[in-house]
Specification:
Length: 333
Amino acid sequence: MKLEQIWTKKTFIGIVLGQFLSILITSTGFTSSLLAKKGIDAPTSQSFMNYALLAIIYGSVLLYRRKPLKTKWYYYIILGIIDVEANFLVVKSYQYTSVTSVMLLDCWSIPCVILLTWIFLKTKYRFKKIIGVAVCIAGLVLVVFSDVHAGDRSSGSNPVKGDLIIIAGATLYAVSNVSEEFLVKSADRVELMAMLGLFGGIVSAIQISILERKELKSIHWTAGAAVPFVGFSVAMFMFYSLVPVLLKIHGSTMLNLSLLTSDMWSVLIRIFAYHEKVDWMYYVAFAAVVVGLIIYSGGDKDENQEPSNVDNRMRQDEETNSGIHSKGTGAGS
């Protein structure tokens, strides 16, 4: 395969956008760690502010349009529940198992996404894309070995419980990502963000009243506590706003592969901000994941894959409503 067939403008946009999303996830991890150091353990409360921003900003646009919903409202309720619980479980798992285990088991979302998109979205995966996925996962395995090699691994208070929690969270993430990919292609990005914010906020508020009410009352709200809280919410809002863009261009598998580098970005921040030394395997792993992403996303426009049913409906809607024919992502997502 020639280089110009892989390295296209679409590939470049996908790589850059995916890495920006990965950096946003890294920033949420750092703000969460700052809150944890201050003894604040309220993961659902942190997510609530993000859902509120989505509902207010995108909901205002949706109300201004005064158009009926393209998707049934109860689908968004289900998506809101899944998304809230996925965020909750992944954050909760850090209390029971090691960071290394979370990094490794979080990859469970990738085969889940591939299976779900193949079954429900009729996505076709050619051999090139499977190789790209394998290279990305190999890069992450190098990170795990690097952690073990450096001796930076703690067993956690209950590793088995933590591992089961992270597997459950990763599975819910996969369901959420595939559902968003379907909705952003068959419905509308603004509608998706507004309804996810609305119902995600409602579910979060109910869960906070049950699980985190006492924790919120005990927090002493100073600038040191409020700034990380707001920073987390802003980063998550930007992340949620840009995720549908990447989903529409390359699909949910590309999103999950891109987020594999979030731990590596955190390592680079530790190197330059805190002057910490890390194992050389991190650099090799980062390069491996980037190469895997290029292999996976490259050359989509040259592949003669049959488009999925979702893409066919999208093309028909676009031709009917605007008369403009735009090339869909096809099964390459």
